[in-house]
Amino acid sequence: MRRSASRKTGQPNSTSSVNSSPADFFRSASSKATSKELERVDNLFYSYANGSSGMIDPEGIETLCSDMEVDHTDVRILMLAWRMKSEKQGYFSLEEWRRGLKALRADTVHKIKKALPELEKEVRRPSTFVEFYSYAFQYCLTEEKQKSIDIESICELLDLVPGTQFRAQVDLFVEYLKAQNDYKVINMDQWMGFYRFCNEISFPDLSNYDPNLAWPLILDNFVEWLEAKQS
Questions:
Q1: ∠ at Cα 157 (155, 162), nearest 5°?
Q2: Tens of pLDDT along 133-145?
Q3: CA 229 vs CA 15, 194, 226: distances in Å
Q4: Pick from 59, 168, 77, 156: which is nearest to 123 by CA?
Q5: How many other CB atoms are there within 10 angstroms of residue 4's CB atom?
Q6: Backbone angles phi, psi at 90, to 5 degrees
Q7: Which residues make Cβ contacts (< 8 Å) with residue 147, sequence separation at least 6?
Q8: Closest to 129 measured CA to CA, from 75, 185, 92
Q9: Residues 58-93: pLDDT tens digits?
Q10: DSSP-assigned letter for residue 206
């Protein structure tokens, strides 16, 4: 039985040409542009990644910092890790790299560097800073099941993270931590408690500090030490 509506091979499909719209054209162009951008992001990642681990390791991060002309101890590198949601200190996976650079709208070293001031401005907003402050502590937990950080490292982290916003409180708290002998490490509750202290307590007069409220004991001791120092 003959087919009455057979189509000759090689004949152009005029229906699809008629039906394609400008929106389809731009969608296709946008998809190609996104694909090219992702390719550039991936190529940039592999230019810094360790061939064995398949990750950007501490050496790769130092090279990236050198290329951006930013010191590797600059707080903005920690902010970059936060933006990537990096899970392991000193390492970036490809997935983390893609996530971070997509958020920064960057696919070159120059664009990453150019995005850093805006990233810092975003992190400094109070609503965002508390998330970054919490992340900074967790990022420094380098061992499995680690819950606390030694005093020396905490002093460095205090200087780096809240130091620019709460300089007076940080300087005195660091002085106290180095002088006291009761605490060898700081846990997350104590770390977050200090941030709350900086935001809520009148300083340096401490007039609204109430030790009967749920403050970590280390802050009660810090306030006692401060009052003795001031008197």
A1: 105
A2: 999 999 999 998 9
A3: 86, 19, 5
A4: 77
A5: 5
A6: 85, 10
A7: 141, 187, 188
A8: 75
A9: 999 999 999 999 999 999 999 999 999 999 999 999
A10: -
Backbone angles phi, psi at 155, to 5 degrees: -60, -40
At 70, the amino acid letter reads V
Contacts of 125 (CB under 8 A, 6+ apart): none
Low-confidence ranges of the chain (pLDDT < 50): 1-12, 14-18
Residue 220's CB: how many other CB atoms inside 10 A? 14
Q: Please provide the average confidence, as pLDDT, over all residues in the chain.
A: 90
161 — phi, psi (to 5°)? -90, -70
Single pTM value for the model:
0.83
pLDDT for 34 equals 76
pLDDT given for residue 215 in this prediction: 96
- Single out the residue of 157, 149, 213 nearest to residue 183, CA to CA: 149
Q: CA dihedral in degrees (80, 109, 100, 194; nearest 10)?
A: 10
The two three-digit tokens of residue 8, written as one number = 């000759």
- What count of other Cβ atoms lies within 10 Å of the Cβ of residue 79? 21
**pLDDT attached to residue 14:** 46
CA-CA-CA-CA torsion sign (180, 208, 163, 80): positive
Sign of the C-alpha dihedral computed for residues 218, 131, 41 and 143 taken in this order: positive
8 A C-beta contact, residue 70 and residue 28:
no
